Amino acid sequence: MKDAKVRLYVDQPLGVGQSVPLGRDQAHYLFGVMRLAVGAHILLFNGKDGEWRAEVVQAGKRAGELSCIEQTKPLQMPPDLWLIFAPIKKARTDFIVEKAAEMGAAMIMPVQTEYTNSDRIRQDRLQAHALEAAEQCGGTYVPEVTDIQKLDRLLADWPEDRNLMFCDEAEVGAAKTLGAANGEKWAILIGPEGGFSPKERERLHAHPKAHVVSLGPRILRADTAAVAALTVWQQQLGDW
Amino acid sequence: MKDAKVRLYVDQPLGVGQSVPLGRDQAHYLFGVMRLAVGAHILLFNGKDGEWRAEVVQAGKRAGELSCIEQTKPLQMPPDLWLIFAPIKKARTDFIVEKAAEMGAAMIMPVQTEYTNSDRIRQDRLQAHALEAAEQCGGTYVPEVTDIQKLDRLLADWPEDRNLMFCDEAEVGAAKTLGAANGEKWAILIGPEGGFSPKERERLHAHPKAHVVSLGPRILRADTAAVAALTVWQQQLGDW
């Protein structure tokens, strides 16, 4: 069997014998950049039908066509986990989104806190980052990046059945474990670089679904904290 | 007490009343960039004497002087943990070093593996990154970044009393826990983007001190894997 080194997200249905027409950007990437020719194999996923091996049947400069051969992985949904974070500098925000997709979050939610510097995000750009990370990490699902919303509002409308893992740097001696049952809905909240405001901390500590977890004695940058918190959760309750 | 927002690594001894002369770069940073004046407070650490509050007693364009007032933190040594990794692209290598310092590794060791692209590193630049990360994260210790060495050689000379946590992406169903006693010497090994070679994997699996650990069903980039592996270790055996 030919080795398929390229992995691509497509927006079309995938199944045995299914033809997948390619748009201009995809054709440019596959045939211009990656230099694939007719007969080459690539892997496809669409977030719904798992991963498929497909063959290039037509390769042009501006268009092309693939044909699905066989399923190589079933759809593997990530656990029902939200990653909520306060956007920071551009490069580190991009990293958080990339990491959340790699680590297996289902939904990535930027929030505005009292100490958040930026109140706008480029949702389309962050969604593209999540997609690229899914292509790279072998995932069959692309987490959704939501638009930015206020933390206050999000907490006010908090779903009754979702637990909230909250990493409080100011909390010395917080628990290291979550100690909760598997299969529940969860969210992880990462604060901004300046931490949460006293009012926000009070509100979070009083939250009925909140679980405070410690990430060690050093102050972690927001992007480091995101990966560390996702690791703690995935190890204890997730799909690792 | 005045709020000390700046935190600086210095190369001099720290103690009550100790005078700390500043070099050109430090004077430029404190008085040019951060706009501190005589009487301002900053935090100092040198990797040996803990963290100290100091006052600016002289502020010039090319030099200056600080005077230590009181110790604000004792020296907190990180656990005896090495992070061994194969250098990747520049930005991601920088991230790994920064993350290792934040997460509390004592030694950061770049290695050349069979599938490592780059065989050189800028040790001085990486050491400066580790130092900056220590300044930012509130640590009182700066991990040492060693020069690059061959993985083969490192394994041949492996110390008898040091465990090796090895994250093998090809290992489905590996343990999630380390199951070892506290207080031992450890090293974490992160592979290059292309993974380990079959020969390297064989050698690592046969290593008497190796513990294989799984980091989940998705393929993590090397920088993500470094933070995730450090989290697993710190949570189970470290200072978290």
How would you portray this structure in words?
- The structure is a homodimer of 240-residue chains.
- Chain A has 240 residues and is of the alpha/beta class.
- The first copy, chain A, has two domains: 7-73, Ribosomal Protein L25, Chain P, CATH 2.40.240.20; 81-237, SPOUT methyltransferase, trefoil knot domain (Alpha/beta knot, 3-Layer(aba) Sandwich), CATH 3.40.1280.
- Helices cover 29% and strands 26% of the residues of chain A.
- The first copy, chain A, has six helices and twelve strands.
- Chain A has helices at residues 24-33, 90-103, 123-137, 151-156, 198-205, 222-237; strands at 7-9, 19-22, 41-45, 51-59, 64-73, 81-85, 107-112, 144-145, 149-150, 162-167, 185-190, 210-213.
- In chain A, strands 6, 7, 8, 9, 10, 11 and 12 form a seven-stranded parallel sheet that branches. In chain A, strands 1-3-4-5-2 form a five-stranded mixed sheet.
- In chain A, α2 crosses α3 and α2 (90-103) packs parallel to α6.
- The first copy, chain A, is elongated, with a radius of gyration of 20 Å.
- The two termini of chain A are 30 Å apart.
- The A-B interface holds A 76, 95, 98-99, 102-104, 136-139, 176, 214-221, 224, 227-228, 230-232, 234-235, 238-240 and B 76, 95, 98-99, 102-104, 136-139, 176, 214-221, 224, 227-228, 230-232, 234-235, 238-240.
